[in-house]
Amino acid sequence: MTKLSGRAFYESLGSPKKIIAPMVDQSELGWRLLSRAHGADLCYTPMLHARLFAESEKYRDQNFLAGHDGNKETDRPLVVQFCANDPEVLLQAAKLVEDQCDAVDLNLGCPQNIAKRGKYGSFLQEDWDLIYKLINILHVNLKIPVTAKIRIFPDKEKTLKYAKMVLSAGAQILTVHGRTREMKGQQTGLADWQMIRFLRDNLPPETVIFANGNILYHEDISRCLEITGADGVMAAEGSLYNPAIFQKEVTYSESIPDSKELIDELYPRVDVLLREYYEILKSTPGEATRLAAKSHFFRLLRPFLPIYTDVRQEIAKINRNTTIEDYEKITISVEEIVRGLLADEENQKKDTIVRSSQPMDESGAVYKDIPFWRVQPYFRPVSGQILYGGKRKSDPAAAESGNKPAEKKERLETVEVPVALSA
Fold it and tell me: Taking every annotated instance into account, which residue ranges of this chain make up the domain DUS-like FMN-binding (predicted)?
């Protein structure tokens, strides 16, 4: 059977436009199942360490459970991502999954210090010969295609030359994270969509490009596709805080739901989404899914936890010995709290989405005030603070002290407007 390439391969996947990014310990099977239920067309696994995957059966069982990860009925299309710096080891690892996924991806974007110490991810950017060998050995020897996820350089021409090298090595899809290696943590800043557009305009038309970065709201998807000319949009943090980010494509003019049903679809209540995730967690095997649950509980409930710090404390207690019944207790507690909140007529009136009159940037994007009992975007703090309405305030989710009942009421009535910050 001839291995598909380029756009033919992309079309064989169903021409996906809404893609869940490879995230360390966060795009595991349970989360992928939730994401697919809410509109994701294509999912990537978490970044897997090629050497450990090739050498350790325990590591493989923990991170890629045969018969479940990559299941043809429930978990496809799927791309398995590896980080690596040894072509032979990478091929050995990839061979172990080539019958359980649609492609293997090389991580060339991880900017963390652990990647620097291990010499992988974005810290291979200076070693183009090695990158070529890593991609090409998979291209030549696998039955399935190889793809790559890169970060940009500050210089356009260098970025274009880099992208051409990656493609010439055999990558069939190029995912471009529109940030440099230095843009991480509190220096993250905005992803450069114009750089992605530059690549789109200067690479062969048959090149398949996924754009990554700046996806906070549903309408960012269509805007990103229009501005970058990319074939698909990949979301990472945006999907972790609102897994319904891909539920429905809307434009800015359509972005304020005018019906209760649409609000529930775009910005689900935290209790509803937590229950859905818990049911997946309960029925999905694999250590990776269970170990990721604590982090997912925190992110799904992020706007809710600064107010109900008792729930936050229960999640903080989760460890390897936590039972599925403990997760259900937390889920039930959140359900009871939200049910009580919405039994109040005043809160029912506030269960709506309010647009800010002030654009966040030149695109016309505006911040939405969303009730804390609904999932919503995360605006990354800078120096421990978030920019609200032009003024910096402490990130409420980072506060350790508990909120008193009076403070709960104040938070209900406060509209905070972040501007010009990216997830």
Answer: 20-321
